[in-house]
Each structure stands twice: as structure tokens, then as C-alpha cells.
Amino acid sequence: MRALVFESPLTMVCREVARPAPAAGEALVRVRYAGICGSEIHAYHGQHAKRVPPAIMGHEVAGVVEALGAGVTGPAPGTRVVVLPQKSCGACHWCTHGQPNLCDRKVMLGEPAWSGGYGEFFATPAGLLHPVADRVADDVATLVEPLAVAVHAVRRAGVGLGDRVLVMGAGAIGLMTVLAARAAGAGTVLATDLFDFNLERARGLGATHTLNARAGGLPERARELGDGRGLDAVFLAADAPGLFDQAVRSTRKQGTITLIAMFPDPRTVDLQTPKAMEHVVRGSLTFTPDDFRVALGLIEAHAATVAACITHRFGLAEGAEAFRLADRRGEDLVRVVLRP
């Protein structure tokens, strides 16, 4: 089969590889579309601890069940599916306490040990597959995974009815966080980004207010929307110097700051202000199976709206170009997807 192989930093090569066969308990999935996530861009630059070459990456995947391994009764061949792209051990402290996203031995789809969706086929435990409603297009279905990331973060922050929220960064994860926050009941959602193109999509997904970060004045705008106190919950869905300190200045006393983006480089931040304001600073890592199910339901309910987040489509043979484009993140780009 053909696959886009991550051979070394900044090097993606489309070539023939062996087609996988489903083992007992597994299904073979024919890939329809696979998204290029920010975490894969970090890997592309050699900045990901587990997605290292050589590997067939791709964990935001929609496809069709091709065949079943021994002992598997469903979903039946021909079923359109998305995959929950993490295998947990089921036995460690975190797995037995309902938090498999924190599993000590977790393997993500697209790591060297589990070839992912940048190929024509991949094998997966059948229990990780979820059928997709007909009204959800194949490319849109790839957004279930980033929306599950957002659902988990919004739940971690405890966003509820009427809360006032700031989402910093309106890339795919930030846009999904806007949708998840509104679905959780947030009454005010301020989204920021460097590009008006992305902010327009944020408004389409439920942002009540937007701000181009180039204009400055974010903490002042946040205090204005928060009756002079600041906002209840802030999500960092982007990484840039100074963003954490802006988040601190935008959050009310005892408000919550949730870290969703990847932060590969150490940096100096203001800790005295969040200490004095009794902020809660939370990390958020991937999602639980329940988060994934919630995200699938939200995608099915908002399929027509979230479709605007898929902006570029490439074949596998154009994969190197697709990665270069996703890495540059131009004015009109949100999510790039590959089709084998």
C-alpha cells in the first residue's frame, strides 16, 4: 500500500509499504481522510517525544472497515468509522481510575509502534472504532478527535451555564474549544487569533466576541467583558512567548487557566500574579472515551458548521507539500487533511 512516511525532521516521503493485517481483536480500516494536527507539526520539527521517525503518523482518521480479525463481530465491513486513537494498558492506576488518557503505557495512533492514518490502511483494536452518521462527511469526521481534546479541556475547567470564557488561538483546537465551551453553557466566549479568517470561523462556531491579537489590548477587553474582574475560564490553544502572562491578566480572581497547546520550549512566566489571585492552572491531555463519544455527538449535531474548518485537501503523493503548508499556517488555513 502507499503511505506517507515521516523519515526524518522536515522529511515526509510517499512510498510503498507493507499492508497491515488485522490480528485477533482488530479491524483493518481503509482510510478516507486523515488530518494534520499541530502535534504532528511538532513531530515534523523533531519536537515530539513519541512521534519520532520512522513512522506513519496520522491520528485524526475517518475511514471504512475493510476486514475483521479473529474474534471480532463488529463494526461490520463497509461501516464508516472514526477511531479513538489511543491504546491504554487497562491495568495501571490511571486506567483503573477512569483516566486512560494518563495511562503510563499509552500508545497513540501514528507512533512507530502503531502505524497511523497517513496510509491507505491501518489496523486497530476494533473496540476503538465508532460508527459515523451518514450526514457527517468523511473529511469532517476527522474533526471528532480534536473536538474530543476540546471537550476534555472544557470539562477539566468546569465550564458551566453562563460562564465567561477566553480561547486564545483559533486554530483547529481553539475553534473546537469555542464549540465545546458553548455546548457546555458558556454565555460569553472571546476568541483571539492572528488571522481574521480564523476569527470569522470562530464566530460561526459560537464565539460571541473576537479579537485580532495583533491589535493588542486583550487583558483590557477581557476585563471589560468580565464586569471589570476578568473572565472565568481561559484556554491556551496556542503557544507563543507572553501568552501565559496575557492569560493571567485576563482571568478573574479564582478563575481557571487551562493549557491545551503543546509547549515544547521552557520559558519564564509570572507566577506571583496567579498565586495572589488564587488562579487554578490546569493541564489538559487528550481525552477519555466519554469525551470522545460526546465529541462525536457534537460533530453529528453541527456537521454543516464545522465543515468550514476543513480548508485544504491533498492526496498522499502531495503529503510533503501539505506538511509544508500546514507548517507555514497561512492566512486562509485551519485544518489540512490527506486522502490516500
Written description of the protein model:
This protein is of the alpha/beta class. The protein folds into two domains: 168 residues, Medium-chain alcohol dehydrogenases, catalytic domain (Quinone Oxidoreductase, Chain A, domain 1), CATH 3.90.180; 134 residues, NAD(P)-binding Rossmann-like Domain (Rossmann fold, 3-Layer(aba) Sandwich), CATH 3.40.50. The chain has twelve helices and 17 strands. Strands 3, 4, 5, 8, 9, 16 and 17 form a seven-stranded mixed beta sheet that branches. Helix 7 packs parallel to helix 8. The longest helix is centred in the middle third of the chain and has 14 residues. The chain is globular and about 60 Å long.
Characterize the biggest β-sheet.
7 strands, mixed
- The overall strand count is 17
* Helix count, DSSP H or I runs of 4 or more residues: 12
Question: What's the overall geometry?
Answer: globular
Report the top-level CATH class of the largest domain. Alpha Beta
What is the structure about, briefly put?
The protein has about 350 residues and is α/β, with parallel strands linked by helices. The protein contains 12 helices and 17 strands.
